[in-house]
Every structure is written in C-alpha cells, then in structure tokens.
Design goal:
Elements (H helix, E strand, L loop, with lengths): L7 E13 L3 E5 L9 E11 L5 E4 L5 E7 L2 E13 L38 H8 L5 H15 L1 E2 L10 H7 L1 E2 L1 H13 L5 E7 L15 E8 L2 E5 L11 E6 L8 E3 L4 E12 L24 H10 L3 E7 L16 E6 L2 E6 L2 E8 L2 E9 L10 H21 L16
Parallel strand pairs: 7-8
Antiparallel strand pairs: 1-6, 1-14, 2-5, 2-13, 3-6, 4-5, 9-10, 9-12, 10-11, 15-19, 16-17, 17-18, 18-19
Helix pairs in contact: 2-4, 3-4, 5-6
C-alpha cells in the first residue's frame, strides 16, 4: 500500500496504573488500528509487573489484549509514533446514502439501537428536528450542529452509564455522550453509524489547556465508505488516530475489567512531533511538540507590508487546513506547482500563493491595485510584486511551526 500521503507524525500513548486486591481479568484496546489512513512507525506496549497476555481481533476488527491484573499495583504503558495525513477529515468526500436494501449484510447492525445509542427512544425527536432536511449530508451536519450547540461539554461530570436519550434530556456530557447522541439520531434515519475512539492531537488548533484524554467521535457509512464526523468539536480536524470502533462505547472501551480494580493514575498524550527528533521510550517532552501553539510570523508580515506597499490583500494562516482559495492569480489563469506543497496562480492582476507544510498551512492572497493593472506595461512589475509576497510567505513557511489566525471568508474555488 502506498503510504506517501501520510506526511505527518503524531506521538500517542497512555500511562495507566491500576490497583487490585486479587487477580483480575482485563481487556485492553490501546493499539492503533491498522488501516490505510494511519501507519504505525514505532510502538511499544509494556505491562508491569510482566503480565501474560494474548492478542486477538474482536468482531469489530479492534486489536485487543487480554491479560490478568495481579494483586497490588499494575502499570500499563503504551507509546507509539504514527504517520497520518495532513488532510482534514473527509477532504475528498462525495457522500450519498446507500439504500438499506443495498447495504452489505455486515453493515446492517450499525443501523439498530444499541446499549448507549438508543435510537428507538429518539425516533420522534429525530424526525421532528431533522425530518424536513432531505439531503443526507446536510442532515448529518444539522445533527452535529444541534448536538454541539445544545449539549454542554462538562469534563468529569457525566455518568458512564448514560444513554443517548438520557443525555438529550439532561443536556450535558463528555465526548462519548456527544458521539452517542449523534449516532442515535443518525440511526433514526437508517444511516449506518458507528462509534469510534482514538487520539486527537491539536494540529491547527490551540491547546485548550484541558488534560489530554482519549477522544470519541463517530463515522457514517456513505457512498460505500465510512466518513468521519465529530459533534464535540464540530469542525474537520487533522491527525485523528483511530484505536477502536463498534456499536457504542461498550465495544470500544480502552479497558474492560472483570472484577475489582481502582484506576490510580491516568495520563494520555497525542501531539505532533518531528520523527527525526523524537522516539518512543523517551520521556514525554512537550517542548518538542509542534501542534497546539499560537504564533504569527511578524517578520514575513512586515516584509510584505514594507516591500509591497502597492499590494492590498490578506495574509491568512489557516487553522491547520488549507482554506478554500478565491479565483485568482495567473496572467492567463495558469497554475504553477513551484515545489511540493507550494502553488501559485496568476490572473488579471491577482495572485494567490498557497504553501503547505506538515506543521503549517499558509495562504497568501494579493490583489494588485488598479495603478499596476495598466495593459502590458505592468506585467513584469506585477510579477515582481507577487514574488516579494511569495518570499514573505516562504519565510513564514520555513520559520513557523504552528500558526493560527482568524479565518477570512473566501470563495469555494480551490487550486
């Protein structure tokens, strides 16, 4: 399989400590799933004291470890470097629903109610709220918007046994509750929907400051593929690493314990790194973290402002994903790929540059003022002005690790 598009590296893992008075069976789902959207570069899973364990694949394709906790303290440590794509969720999505009678047999179970996704109790509510929306994708987004808006996120305050219908009534929960509600509402419209848990780094987003944790979201089967949705954050994200999936949280718990055990330590990490500088087994060092930071390249900005005073435009550093670009840039509406990840287009006195790097996406849009749009005479000058802006963007591209600014609305035409 070609993994060339997996151009970013994320360090993920967890450190769990359990104490138990007697030997206690445990199931662990900590290892990333093996699929085409992520590639494990390095990985280590240790259980201390040494615990005999066996690995198997469950009914949902999750890698599961079965072991036995020993009396006293048990330490479970997982650390991995995983390659992922710099593209946001569903960047190539062309979604349409598959009629139920044409669904593969193994998909049908994801339409039915489950322990935490009691869609049968939300049928009336679902049709009242979203029944007038005919387009499938619009309906899913409307469900995400409703959950994101009407369910309050309260870290550490939700019950572990709350079902989707209960969360709709109480109007608060954590990410697993957001996912359960959205799944139940989608299943109410016969959309195959499954629960997913994994790691979500802050690529293109500022670290909110909350303790890192596993993250729950959901996938809907559309157009013969599974598409990712996240009612908790309600925006396309970069760098998701899937660990487990199933009908609901019952099938995708990081640990399932058959007996008495107390979790005395819980630590999770997921952050972008440079694989040439970071390796598994090293201490968790957030100073080497490439995501979750604020910043702005003032040097590039002032080069642009000082050297290109006749240019009026926008300097946009996107929220970790390439914003849609306006119709622009090119003497003859031509597009040029200057280098990997660097594009330029000229058109009618306008120029658009886009530079993408695993840790930064920069888009610079420039409009040449009418003074420089004299026929033929200004062609060379326009190109020189655009080159100045491009060099300023290049400085931002080289020197910045992660930058975030307010998004500027542009049209939907992309390079």
């Amino acid at each position: 399989m070609n993994h060339g598009f997996l151009n970013m590296t994320v360090r993920i893992g967890c450190h769990l400590v359990y104490e138990t008075p007697r030997p206690t069976p445990i199931l662990l789902m900590l290892r990333p799933r093996l699929d085409g959207k992520q590639l494990v570069r390095q990985e280590q899973l240790t259980l201390t004291p040494w615990l005999p364990s066996d690995e198997y694949t469950d009914a949902h394709g999750n890698t599961t470890y079965r072991s036995m906790l020993q009396p006293g303290q048990n330490v479970i440590h997982h650390d991995a470097l995983v390659a992922v794509s710099s593209e946001p969720d569903n960047h190539d999505q062309q979604a349409h629903a598959t009629p139920v009678n044409q669904l593969p047999p193994w998909i049908l179970r994801y339409i039915l109610p489950s322990r935490y996704c009691d869609s049968d109790k939300l049928l009336g509510f679902a049709w009242q709220q979203f029944g007038s929306i005919n387009n499938t994708l619009d309906r899913i987004y409307a469900i995400c918007n409703w959950v994101h808006t009407h369910i309050e996120y309260r870290y550490g305050c939700a019950r572990s046994d709350s079902s989707a219908s209960e969360v709709v009534n109480q109007r608060f929960g954590v990410c697993r509750d957001f996912a359960h509600v959205a799944i139940a509402l989608c299943r109410a419209f016969n959309l195959p929907t499954r629960y997913v848990v994994g790691h979500l780094p802050d690529i293109g987003h500022t670290d909110p400051g909350a303790p890192m944790d596993f993250h729950a979201y959901f996938e809907v089967y559309l157009g013969q593929t599974w598409c990712t949705f996240d009612a908790r954050y309600n925006t396309p994200r970069i760098g998701r690493i899937k660990v487990a999936q199933g009908l609901d949280a019952v099938d995708a718990a990081s640990a399932t314990i058959y007996g008495e055990a107390v979790l005395t330590w819980f630590e999770v990490w997921a952050y972008q790194v440079n694989p040439s500088e970071v390796s598994i087994g090293q201490p968790i060092d957030l100073s080497k973290r490439l995501d979750g930071k604020k910043g702005f390249c003032f040097l590039a900005f002032w080069i642009w402002k000082v050297l290109s005073p006749t240019l009026a435009g926008q300097f946009v550093v996107g929220q970790g994903l390439l914003p849609n670009l306006s119709k622009s840039a090119g003497l003859n509406n031509d597009k040029f790929l200057l280098a990997e990840g660097i594009r330029i287009r000229f058109h009618l006195g306008q120029a658009t540059f886009s530079i993408s790097k695993p840790t930064l996406i920069v888009t610079c849009q420039c409009r040449i003022l009418p003074l420089l749009m004299l026929p033929r005479v200004s062609t060379t000058l326009n190109q020189l002005r655009c080159l100045m802006v491009f060099l300023a963007c290049l400085i931002a591209f080289v020197t910045a690790s992660s930058t975030e600014m307010v998004e500027v609305p542009v049209s939907s035409t992309c390079l």
